[in-house]
Amino acid sequence: xxxxAESGGGLVQPGGSLRLSCVANGFALHYYxxxxxRQSPGKQREWVATIDTDDRAYYSDSVKDRFIVTRxxxxxxxxxxxxxxxxxxxxTYLCNMHDMWGQGTQVTVSS
Length: 111
Known about the structure:
Blueprint: E1 3-7, E2 10-12, E3 18-25, E4 34-39, E5 46-51, E6 57-59, E7 67-72, E8 77-82, E9 91-97, E10 100-101, E11 105-109
Parallel strand pairs: 2-11
Antiparallel strand pairs: 1-3, 3-8, 4-5, 4-9, 5-6, 7-8, 9-10, 9-11
C-alpha cells in the first residue's frame, strides 16, 4: 500500500527545536521531491519547504534560516529540522511525496 506518514510533532517552547520525519511507504523515494506544508485552523495550507531529487532545498521566507529540509533515500525518509521556533509556527505539518499527503503531525509552540 502506497502512503506517506509524518511524525515528530509536539509541544515546544518558543526558541526551541523539533525534527519532523516523513516516511514513504510502498514506493522508492529517490524518484520524488519532498514538499513540507503546514496548516492552521481557519488558514490556507502554506508551503514551507521543498527538497528535490538532487538535494536542492527551497524555503518560504517565513522559515528561511530557521528550518532545514533533508532526505535519506536509503531510509525512504524526509526530515524537517525546525529551529528557533516561534508561536506563529504552530500548525499541523504535512509532507507531500509522489502527490500523496500524510495525515500530518501537530506542532505547538507555546510557553
